[in-house]
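Q: Sequence in, structure out?
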Amino acid sequence: MNIMQDFGLRLKEIRLRSSMSQDTLASLSGLDRTYIGGVERGERNVSLKNIGILCNTLNVDISYFFADERLSLHTAFLKSEWSLPLETRFKFIVQSEDNIIAWQVTGALHLNEVKKICLDLKSACRQLASGKVKLLIDTSKMMTKDQPYAFQNEVREVWVELQRWFLPHCEHVVVLYNSRFMQSQMNRLAKRSGIIKVQKSLFVENRHSLADGEDDLQHVIKEYLTTR
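A: Exactly. Output:
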């Protein structure tokens, strides 16, 4: 495999994990779909300028694009997940005595669901002391077929606005991620919203066993309170 083929394969990996078709990537990046197809097949050379455009559109850092973490070539986004109850794909807990809001994403979310989630989270935040909120965001289970996946583009925009709204309310933010891919995704969103100033990212590979009857998100809070 030559360097152009390897680059094209890497582009395809990240595009698929970002739930984008070639048409979608072309539309969002302003590049021609046939050009993107040629790059992915290793038939077209690509300029530094276009590498930057592709990385920004896919919401990954250029340094991550050339990292050694490789991803599956299976499409990440499964519309069948939307048929599952929302509470199996997203949940949050408010712990008023510690001024904590913790939320966990475990499945694909569509735009209308995220808009509702934002309203619920803002309402919960208003019940806590402004400027003192400890926000825990668990994205470590955003996986399909044992591979990480990213928010869709329209969801990312709403997520950035949610983080921007939360920023003045938060004392600090902890984000759990499952891969360098997810870390790059979430950190870029945090930089755009400004919440990166109070955010810490933690890699989670294997969680400790849960106690009988213990909820996974409650376990996240307990670990946070034990180690902070």
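The chain has a mean pLDDT of 90.
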